[in-house]
From TrEMBL:
Region (Disordered): 15-36
Species, as recorded: Orbilia blumenaviensis
Comp. bias (Polar residues): 17-36
Key words of the record: Membrane, Transmembrane, Transmembrane helix
Protein name stated in the entry: Uncharacterized protein
Length: 143
């Protein structure tokens, strides 16, 4: 039988090389799931990335923060306000993103190449929206 020897390449990478653009030593692997989540040295960084990649990463991070804020507002938290207290909270959150180093993680790579990691988050969002819809229907039936 005839078999193809063509390699499947990611459309978002110029070459088919493995992901080696991170700050860890070659061959270093996390020993637990907690280490993967808490140790940012295992995440791809923007240290030697071109300007376009930095802009893409900051855009994706701002979208993630916006969607998280809208989701919290939808659940019932009063976070979308125009008071001066709210601007203090937004400023503190922005400063904490810079201070913690989260802003220098390559969010474009994480979202585009590891999109399947968001499936549990999407399932959780679906469950929360379903429960809120059921609670709203129960209130409508009582009225």
């Amino acid at each position: 039988m005839w078999t193809s020897k063509a390699a499947i390449r990611s459309p978002f990478r110029a070459n088919a090389a493995p992901n080696t653009d991170h700050t860890t030593n070659s061959g270093t692997k996390p020993s637990s799931g907690t280490e993967v989540i808490t140790d940012t040295s295992f995440a791809p960084t923007l240290e030697s990335a071109p300007l376009l990649r930095c802009v893409q990463s900051f855009f994706v991070l701002s979208l993630l923060i916006t969607f998280a804020s809208l989701g919290a507002w939808y659940v019932g938290f009063d976070i979308i306000q125009t008071t001066s207290q709210q601007w203090v909270v937004i400023g503190a959150a922005t400063i904490s993103l810079f201070y913690s180093g989260v802003i220098w993680i390559d969010w474009w790579i994480i979202v585009v190449e590891y999109w399947w990691l968001s499936i549990p988050a999407l399932a959780g969002i679906g469950i929360v929206m379903l429960r809120m819809d059921e609670a709203t229907r129960a209130i409508d039936e009582v009225d």
